[in-house]
Amino acid sequence: MEMEKKYKLIALDVDGTLLNDDHELTAGTAETIRRIAAQGTEFVLCTGRAPVNSIPFMREMGLGGYVITHNGAATVDVQTEEIVHEFALDAKGLDRYMDYCREHNVHYDINTTFVLYVPGASQLSKEALDMYHLFMMEPQDLPDWASFKEPIVKMTVTAKKDELDRIQSDWNGWTQEFNVLRSGDFFIDIMHKEASKGAALKKLAEKRGFQPEEVMAIGNYYNDLTMLTYAGLGIAMDNSPLEVKAAANAVTASNNEEGVKQALEKYCLGQSVR
User: Fold this and answer.
1) Is the pLDDT of residue 36 over 70?
2) ∠4-33-62 over CA atoms, to 5°?
3) Of 170, 192, 214, which residue is a domain's last?
4) CATH code, 254
5) pLDDT per residue over 123-162, tens digit each?
6) Is pLDDT of 3 > 90?
7) What global pTM score does this model have?
């Protein structure tokens, strides 16, 4: 059937999309992905996570290829862990955001592609450490800028939803040299102006020789908008905000109802039914 090979690259968001609310990849979803990968389709995880806590899901599914991490700021080879592309940012520009966080007692971290730094990491509360451990991250103590050997790709601010709404409102009044992005109810990410999931996915598709119409993307939040609109088929989860659903070509079930599995069965495996 001529439609069988239509989607050559499938980009999946991780939290709120691929994983359920218990941060689990279900056996059914993993099995469906393996079946489609066996037909020659490439998968890429496209996530706000770092390589250290996204590559394991690819390996669990037996997949090679790439992960697009830090919301598009760094693309990494799953097998070699080599950085394929980075959007490095000007660290000194982060000082005003860090000053704001210190003044308002807001938690933040600074990320290179592979390492996460927190001011006073050794004095972190159990609650903060538990959050990082849930995401398989071990924070290091934040040194001064001159001590960094690797490019910085992201600053993340973490707070309760209403507090983040207030921070976002304050920062919206600033002249921005960065992409300041709400990546979850409890997270704001600050990245290079050009860094986004869509920009990184476009670069990867071009590198692999794929047209946008050969790319499918599935996501659930505002940070997924750029990849949903870039892809030939952008699918929003049922647990997405209304604006994300409106920007997508289709909506699947929620992340707690194996929405990724259902979408893949409908648009990939359904094509190959004789």
Assistant:
1) yes
2) 120
3) 192
4) 3.40.50.1000
5) 888 888 887 887 778 889 999 999 999 999 999 999 999 9
6) no
7) 0.91
Which of 137, 164, 192 represents a domain boundary (last residue)? Answer: 192
pLDDT computed for residue 1 by the predictor: 35
Domain residues for the domain of 52 are 2-86+196-272
Of residues 13, 15, 109, 224, which has the active-site annotation?
Answer: 13
Please say whether the beta carbons of 203 and 75 come within 8 A.
Answer: yes
65 and 201 housed in the same domain: yes
Q: Do 188 and 201 belong together in one domain?
A: no
Q: Look up the CATH number of the domain holding residue 124.
A: 3.30.1240.10
What mean pLDDT do residues 221-248 have?
97
Do 81 and 203 lie in a common domain?
yes
pLDDT on residue 133:
82
Tens digits of residue pLDDT in 47-67: 999 999 999 999 999 999 999
Pair 102, 91: CB distance under 8 Å: no
Same domain, 95 and 187: yes
**95 and 127 in one domain?**
yes
13 part of the active site: yes
